[in-house]
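Teaching note: in complex prediction, the entire set of molecules is handled at once rather than each chain in isolation. The prompt given to students was simply: 'Predict the structure of this complex.' The entities are:
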Amino acid sequence: MGEVAHPVRIVSPFRARTIVLARRFRGVATQVLHNRSAVLGLGILIFFFVLAVAAPWIAPYGPLEPVTDAAPLSHASPSHPFGVNLLGRDIYSQVIWGSQVSLIVGVMSAFVAIVIGTGVGLISGFVGGWLDEVIMRFNDVVLSIPFLVLMIVVAARIGNLDLWGIIFVIGFTGWSVTARVVRGQVLSLKERMFVERGRMIGSSNAHIVIRHILPNAFPVVFANGILTIAISILSESVLAFLNLSVRNNVSWGRVIAEAVRNDAITNGMPEWMIAPGLCLVVLVFGFYLFGYALDEILNPRLRRR
Amino acid sequence: MRDLSVEFGTRGGAVHAVSGASFDLREGEAIGLAGESGCGKTTTALALMRLLPSNGRIVGGSIRFAGRDLVRASEATMRRVRWKSISIIFQGAMNSLNPVRRIGGQIAEPIILHEGSTKTEAMKRAGQLLEFCGISRERVNDYPHEFSGGMRQRVMIAMALACNPSLVIADEPVTALDVMIQAQILELLERLRRELGLSMILISHDLSVLAETCERVAIMYAGKIVETGPVDEVFSDPKHPYTQGLVGAFPDIRSQRVMPEAIPGDVPSLISPPAGCVFHPRCKFAFDRCTKAEPALAEIASGRRAACFIYPQVPEVSERTSPLPAR
Amino acid sequence: MPGSADLAIIPRDPKYQGFRQYQIAQFGLDKTPLEQFVIYLQKLFTLDWGVSYFYKKPVIGILAVDLSWTLLLVGTATIFTVLIGMAIGAYAAVRRGKPFDYLSTGFAIFFYGMPIFWLGLMLQTAFKRRSPFAAWFSWWPQLPVQGYYNNDLIPWQWDWTHVSDAGFHLILPAATLALGTLAGISLVMRSSLIDVMTEDFVTTAKAKGLSEAAVLRRHILPNGLPPMVSLIALDVAFILGGAYQVEYVFNYKGIGYRTIEAIGNLDFPLLQFIIVIGGAAVVIANLISDFVLLLLDPRIKIT
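The expected output is the structure of the full assembly:
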């Protein structure tokens, strides 16, 4: 049995870890790129992201700016691709600006939900015992109350919400699923050998959590996070539709709400509602495609067949 | 079975799981199929019953059974052949039994299907079969999770015998069990074979199991059968270098304490196998011809076949339906 | 938790200030939070649910009627969803990798992410009287886009004309809700069945010579259903949320509609108990599903 001697370079642990991470990331990225639905989803996401960022430059009008060259409630025309709404604003611009709000709120509130959920899940799963039981029962109760109902009522309770308010409302009502998923992952990881070994060499609990469990749970959290963002965007649209969201901020839900309030249907102007709704649908579709594909790739259990 | 070749279509390319494998089985005989994990044994078994998963295809060869070629038979014909003439016992009976149905029903199912019995008759027969395999008849209405591993394997065996097949394939029947139970199950299989006159193909990576139960043995490597012969002879005097390595890896309890010799290298990729003899990269006897041509399984002594150019009688494989030369 | 909504529930509008003192005394808000909570629980279980601010009628009366309407909607929709969704999921799983699978899964993901209220609006647009489609195809159905509005009628007191009329009005809202939840169910069913199909006992079943249909019926489905049942139960919360949206869009006077209204009127007693109902519904659904699971899966026993 001969062994070939490779020249060995000594690198710092930090650099070593970075190299391993980069390699792993590349592996995942290649798989993602080979997966047609992931690519499609990612494409959609990039499209909307660019749209949101470039809104100030792309949109011909501001979101609440009254137009001067067309009458209110006019249909699509070259200068107003989606028509003009009852208050004399360009719907096309509203849709473009709307992407900003929807994305910002969606991502930020999902972030809140993920942070809370991961924290709770980590603690609950790792510490176990009665704390775990209590947290899980509480989680069950929160999950029991229909999410939308809870969100609607909480939003209504608090009244006039600003951007951060909405973000926190959605975030605070949406952490339960993430917590459960993370907890499951932690539980299965806890049984694995390297945790035992970590303990044997005397690592502190915190060390084990941060260094071992978190990195391994990260893929699941990330995939789940994408789906959480999708749900957050949907939630925001529902809230906006019910006029519970931020005033003066034109999100897609709000556009649709206005349309309904002004009887767009009977006034024969359904396109008022179609465009923003379609954007919502496609964006969420993109998130789901990407999220599911990612979940399949990152979750070894699902990858079986 | 002659020149059987099976491929699996994967994203990385076609996996040549089995290439040109051939062996004969006489009635009432037990032949062992040995080899490392992943060498194509289970695939051969599945192919015999045309049970390959959706991405698997038989791409060549023939399987002659009771005067019919199973490779070319229609699916409808196969459904009649399955279980009635050939049945199979899988490894790890935990997952091979439907967890939400009672075992009696599961054993009776093929009886009702193939022989048109009524439910009561079939259930009675199921009870008999269970007794035959060493399980109390009253347990016929229990669920699989109420049995231990060894007993579940007995249930599987009972189920395999349900329609009085002429051939039983046992795929790693004892691998997942501990040694004491292993012995019991093997004994059961032996007894059944004798009393019922079954033919059996026993698949295992554990040579000792095969040595105990089979009359002949076929050694598989990387999808090819490299040696066949009576089991005692093959194990005491292996002809193919791979078999020699396999047998040599078993420490002999009686001889001196010597470190068993491992075969160097790794199993080759089945997507792009090496050119020439598939074993040559790891073979200590390899010479020039081995890298260029592939040895066919040929008779080198009475009743012994091997696929190795060491033996001058062994010809090259003339036509190929599968592997491409290594890139 | 509902208890906390009990505090500071007076509308913020200044003109209510004078009313405030009366209300405080009336609703016992001057007692300590703990006392209030106890009283609340007491009232909850004795079904003395207080009086709605807006309607000046007992909450329980209002909610009971609404609940029956909502149940009608959700019930009808759920039946269709479950039957059709499971069928699609099963077919896609069996024909995995074939065009039907890709198509149905694609559609499912598409509709899964669709806000239900938008779907409702689109259906309204498509099916209203004098809709553009009606102009093109003479056979295009024109369906009522509002829920049945005679809300003094309680479901079990109807006669035939009412039933058929209500049914007619129910088509669009139920269809919306059904479509919206169909997607999720078919996706879950499909993945659950695929998981089962990779198990060994399915190969064994095929080895026995069973036809594909028999394998599906006797081995795959019985094993694929239990996880489905628990997931559907979890989904009840989601279905309720969808029902709320559908009711709002179609002016269907069920619990969802009442909730939105109550929010607008800051009618907190009503809201409190709506949350309770929502929670109770999910709990009950979970209990039922646990029970069903007990029947389906012999491995589960009551501990």
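Point out the following to students. The interface with chain C takes residues 141, 143-150, 152-153, 156-157, 159, 230, 234, 237-238, 241-242, 244, 253, 256, 259-260, 265-266, 270, 273-274, 277, 280-281, 284-285, 287-289, 292, 304-305 of chain A (CB under 8 Å). DSSP finds eleven helices and no strands in chain A.
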